[in-house]
Amino acid sequence: MTNRGIVAHRLGGSLVALTVALAAAPAVAQEAAQQAQDAAAAAPADEGGIVVTGIRASLNASASIKRISPSIVEAVSAEDIGKLPDVSIADSLARLPGVTSQRLEGRDQRLSIRGLGPDFSTTLLNGREQVTVGDNRGVEYDQYPAEFFKNVVVYKAANPSLVAAGIAGTVDLRMLRPLAQRDRIVAVQVRGQMNGMKKLNPDGSRYGYRASATYVDKFADDTFGIAIGVSATDAPSQNERYNAWGFPNSTATGGALLLGGAKPYVQSNKLQRYGAVATLEYQPSDNFHSTLDVLYSKFKETQRLRGIEFPIAPDWGSGATVQPGYTVENGLVTNATLTNIHAVQRNDYNKRDADNFSVGWNNVIGIGEKTHLTIDASYSHAKRTDFLLETYTGTGYGATGPADTIHISANPNGTFDIVPTLDYADDTLFGITDPRGWGYNGTSAVVQAGFLNRPSFKDDLASLRASLDGEISNAGPIAGWEVGVNYSHRKKTSAFKSYFLCPDGAGTNCTVASGTTQFAPIPQEAIVGSVPLGYLGVPSMLALNPVYLYNNALSSVYDNRPVSLVRDNSVTEKVWTGYAMIKLDGDLGGRKITGGFGVQAVHTDQSSVGSISNFSNGVVSIIPTTGGDKYWRVLPSANVSIEVANSSYLKLATSLTMVRPRLDQERVNQEFGIDPTRIESTDPAFSAFTSNGGNPRLRPYRSFNIDGSVEHYFSKGGYVSVAGYFKRLTDYVDPSASFIFDFKDAASLLSPADQARLGTSLGLVKAPDNGGKGTVKGAEITLSMPFAEFSQSLDGFGFFGSASYTKSKIELASNPGNSITLPGLSAWVGNASLYYEKRGFQVRASYRYRSKFLAEVAGLSANPTYRTAKAEGILDAQIGYEFQPDSALAGLSVMFQAKNLTDRPFITYQNDDPRQVIDYQRYGRDYYISLNYKF
Hints:
It is a single chain. This protein is mainly β. It has seven helices and 52 strands. The strands form six sheets. The chain has a 22-stranded antiparallel barrel. A hairpin with a 5-residue loop joins β46 (about 855-860) and β47. α2 packs antiparallel against α3 (about 55-70). It is globular and about 85 Å long. Its main location: membrane. This is TonB-dependent receptor.
């Protein structure tokens, strides 16, 4: 059976039932790397009586983790307690070889590892898989306060004991262990923040703060340790935004590309996060070690957005007229004047509330001298609710008010200046209305003066793991063994509610036919001033309080369109993972060798609960439904590290790995429809019957991987590394797949007359399938070099940098003969840091570059979509001083940091033409000053 046939078979059973219904009505992820962390924490390097701290201590600890690990890993280590080397976890990770990030709202959030985006990697907390406050599996690193972590390790190669490993890699966030600390620690950090741009909205802010405190101590003859941390963050950001609809070949301009429409915005954000963490560690003897980790983070973000949506191209229904005298350059209209423009003035407000809780309890029990039993239980919970409010004002309902005349002109960066004639700050000219008459509830026109989305997500993951490990004597390089089993139960629930908003007053359900008020004056209490959009030519626009309008001037009507009603769903995954491995640690042919080989056997029972909607004859029907699948995957892997010369290592790894598809793709929901205008069509691709949704039988991506690395470590610290990798991807999820299905059981929904005219009962089902395949290959080079390696007079100076090249080729069955690149992949990624640190002084400048890539952005109705993002280079810098032990201020350090000094905007474009810019977001520079005190 072909892959397409398999998918049709898998989904077909569900669709038969649905159409009939319609007709009827971790524990520890890597032992060696953990040992390296403990060693680094317990014994900072000492060079000639000078204790190495700060940047150099961080690099030394990270290099120690990399060196000792038999697998291929990268690591970031805190410079001191509660002090990672960058503003955020994602910032630090984005400096690692082969790792880069995509900025969202000015913050690094989406990580790509070796060219594969967040959907292909897994995030662990102390070796345990984590849920996320995001829409899918990809972790948003903002939910984790950076002050809580001692190390972050990125595994680029799998091993049998690494449960829930990803295809791209596995990120393990690791909290400190109190028993590994020498003395009691009390540390406090306070940091102020300022954005380089003035606040763009009158109710925004450019100033923020961050504060944290950590307490670490040991008791009972150092057998019981405790670590407690708290943090609070209030971080603002500003964003000059521009979004273009696209560029049609306009008949009004002789076929030249014309800007279809544009939305210039100013956006002010505020991120508030409060977190707490606790670790209790107890080791009364060598035969018992117990560790309890608890983390809680409360996350709230508010966004205030104000802008104007200009429909421009007549070909896309703007109703505008292009005046003579426009300019065309290389097929693109770069200057034009248009009349009869009816724009939509927007005052929007977004609020997100999220809670993240994680607890894990690990116990290691000695059984005899050489065997250990490890039992690890964990629970991770995340909950998020959004309040996404849009409000519209214009000069009249349905393009009936006074029209505007605008002049558009292309800028060198790909955006367009839009200079209007109307005064968009005149509250006597503008009112609450549906300026374009776009409102439609599926059956009739509504006066849509706003819209409200209220999605909520809940994600729960419980896991229990047990393993036995032991030592083997006198067996050459074979040093031990380990067997284990892990059970996890994850359930993610997604619920969506949306509402049409219309002016208060007459009418029912916001419909035009019922006499709903079409134009209402703006309450004076809602006016908070005006904001300029001068960066794109608009002098000023009304700044309104959208929450006031929602509470006092707008009526809400539930959105019961089929596409809205069919979104609620839950996805459940019950996963059993058994593994067995042999550990290597000894000599082979006179060479030190470490590593291991073994296999995982993974059984998955996945299911989804949702609904199918039917819209026919003006009536919406919602039918509850379920679906799912069960399957096995066997995943062998092997890692070996050989010390081929003194301080020089050859590391090799091969494995089969898998990563589960996006949770929204696993949903059972389908939007089923009957188009009466196609009743007589005999072409299944254009028949009356269609269905669109998810696939609860979707299988994981699979990858065969080969990894190699050559590493040499210098005597005074630092190392050089060259790595190569190859991945062959199968069962790649094709999000645009479709197949022909016989909807004969749904034909009874038609009237007898329509049944007689029915051309075919066959139709298209659109749902993701595993119809893709491809390859990823690349190389990395890394150099960490303290300049004291060349001359002692350069002690304190150093360099850390890396460069990587990755190439991918993905083929989808839905698009035969055409290959695509991986979302999130930049062919070239580079990082470079120069630093000086000695006698308390610390200076660092860091630059990171990524070439163009396919970026995931929010499209229509906030659905994810992909567009090409321009290459970007970002420069950060910091300077600080730590008072020395002989000073009266010993323990105090001061740091000044600057982020995005290049003021690099985030830009996407379409059709492989950088002139056709779709998104432009400028965040400005951020400046921080921090005080740290440890006593």
